[in-house]
Amino acid sequence: MPEWLSGVVLSRFARHIGTMTVSEHQHALPQRGDLSLAAAEAMKAHGEQWTEMRAAVFGALCELKTPSSAYDVAELVSQKLGRRVAANSVYRILDLFVAQNIALRIESCNAYVPNAHPGCMHDCIFLICDACGSVEHLDEDSVGQSVRSIASGQGFAPMRPLIEVHGRCGTCLNEMPD
Q: Which member of 41, 102, 118, 167 has the greatest number of CB atoms within 10 A?
């Protein structure tokens, strides 16, 4: 693994770990560099390899401060590896990460964030600040269950509800003039 990945700092997740809720159970969330290890273990548990390129893409996704596009990730990986990495290659890796639950896709922004607990499957609520671009990821299975029930009542077979709420975060609300 490249040396630069070993020191990936996940400050944006450290700030949100205390606000995540899990309605079904409590579990420990990986801290800092342990997230890369947890992601690698989750991939291997599903029979997938944790290659140097996948590690580089995950490391870049963690290092970026806001939800990131494949192009953002490709640019950072290219800088770190010292060679051009195509965005379409990064898209394929990110799609695999989403399928294996080690990254989450924010549909309305066409952006990705690392999953703070890749070994667990929960329904997501994203709180997206339209002012600063920050995203708070909450796990809330009870809301997802309500969405499933409503969808099922309409003869629809729901897979995994994803709820995105746009607005302003507490920091931006506090910075607004009275």
A: 102
